[in-house]
Amino acid sequence: MSPDALETLKRKTEAFAQRAGQVAVIAQSKTDPALAVALNPSMKLPSASVIKAAIACAAVDAPGLDLAQPIKSGALDETFYCSILKAFDPDDTLTLKNLIGLMLIVSDNPATSAVLERMGMDRVNTWLHANGMRDTNIEIGFDDTALGTPLRANLTTAEDCLSLLKLIDQTPRYAFIKRMLANNLRNERIPKRLPDDAVIAHKTGTLNGLVHDIAIIESPVAAYYLIILADGLDDDAVFAQDVAAYSETVYALMAR
């Protein structure tokens, strides 16, 4: 990225964030971390489903947790809401690693609850703090009673999300997590307007008025991290469209 492109990125980022609500953004080159812009990087916001990427990493590192452990679909928590697990018969068996995949690829909440039940939120918080993400926490899970306003007790920052993405990107034992994130089926934000040859390993988070997306973007012409966290929005759908347009701008500038 040229100096002129970096200055343009700073202006575009400030313009993107000028709206009702709280917006935090980090865009950082993978090859040269000095090529970066950051807006409100330490602002604490509800993490929503972004925290699921950290849960996955903590599960990998949890002593004694067997990711090959078989679990019958019928033994998982019931939910009033849609769940991909409802496509399985009660006697169908999945492994804990399979459930992590469903937690990341389709952000399935019962799959997330199953992973948390087998490791505990304390282990996730211990993992977060041990890896320098001290402004991120998980205080409540993803069962039906936790969804909505209670889920806002879980907090994170753009800085911590960047640390999380770097760990996933650079740590060999998390390679399957990065692969799962690259197959995310919710692609209406950061990936929507990027070229087909770009690989986007990302995790979204959504609540009323809250729209997040954190991503590792790699292509033949660009490689960078992009974190967008936003809460208190007037119109979630409009903001998602704006995220897609901003992401396209970042890609073009990172490619210079």
CATH-defined architecture: 3-Layer(aba) Sandwich
Give a count of the beta strands, DSSP E runs of length 2 or more. Answer: 9
Number of domains: 1
Secondary structure: helix percent: 25-40%
Regions with little confidence, pLDDT below 50 for 5+ residues? none
Please state the average pLDDT score. Answer: 96
Proportion of residues in β-strands: 15-25%
Reading side by side through the largest sheet, how are the strands ordered?
2-1-9-8-7
CATH class: Alpha Beta
Q: What overall geometry do the principal axes of the alpha carbons give? A: globular
What is CATH's topology name? Beta-lactamase
Q: Which structural class matches the secondary elements?
A: alpha+beta
Biggest sheet: strands, sense, closure?
5 strands, antiparallel
Total helix count? 8
| Distance N to C terminus | 5 Å
* Rg computed from alpha carbons, rounded to a whole number of angstroms: 18 Å
CATH H-level homologous superfamily name: DD-peptidase/beta-lactamase superfamily
Order of SSEs = HEEEHEEHHHEHHEEEH
Defining traits:
alpha+beta, Beta-lactamase, two-stranded antiparallel ribbon, 256 residues
Describe it:
- The chain is an alpha+beta fold and 256 residues long.
- It has one domain: Beta-lactamase, CATH 3.40.710.10.
- It contains eight helices and nine strands.
- The protein has a five-stranded antiparallel beta sheet, with helices on both faces. A two-stranded antiparallel sheet has the order 3-6.
- A hairpin with a 4-residue loop joins β8 (210-218) and β9.
- α1 (3-17) packs antiparallel against α8 (236-254) and α2 (51-61) packs parallel to α4.
- It is globular and about 60 Å long.
